Amino acid sequence: MSSDNLRPDHVDLLDIARSTFVGEILPVLPDDKRLAGLMIANALGIAQRMLAAPAGEDGDQSGLCAEIRAGLHDVDDAGELRTHLIKRTLARLAVSNPKALAEAERSLAGADKS
Fold first, then answer.
1. Cα separation, 72 vs 56, whole angstroms
2. Coil, strand or helix: which one is 27?
3. Do residues 61 and 111 share a domain?
4. In which domain, by residue range, is 108 found?
5. Quick one: pLDDT at residue 59?
6. Burial tier of 14 (Cβ tally within 10 Å: 0-12, 13-18, 19+)
7. What is the reported pTM?
8. Which of 8, 89, 91, 107 places its Cα 20 to 30 Å from the Cα of 99?
9. How far apart are CA 19 and CA 13, in angstroms?
10. Are residues 46 and 78 in the same domain?
11. For residues 114 and 14, what is the distance between their CA atoms, to the nearest angstrom?
């Protein structure tokens, strides 16, 4: 529930909808509708994580794209652009596919050691 009033916020409402769907509706769907049900549950989970993500995590990148096209990052000795893009990708992965996030982080850690 949001702290400023007693009404549930968007994340709470999606949590209630997803848990009810997964707990009560999905188990009784016929086999030919199970895939559609799993896709709905997944979409609700993604929407929930999108709303819960900190503001600005996936902001407008058009300025960065223009800088790259203009060659402003062609010489990036400190790897700042690479670091920024990796952080942005991991933040998006945390929303869209959190199960794959740990594997991606392990892979990056292994790449850093070599």
1. 23
2. helix
3. yes
4. 57-114
5. 58
6. buried
7. 0.64
8. 8
9. 10
10. no
11. 42
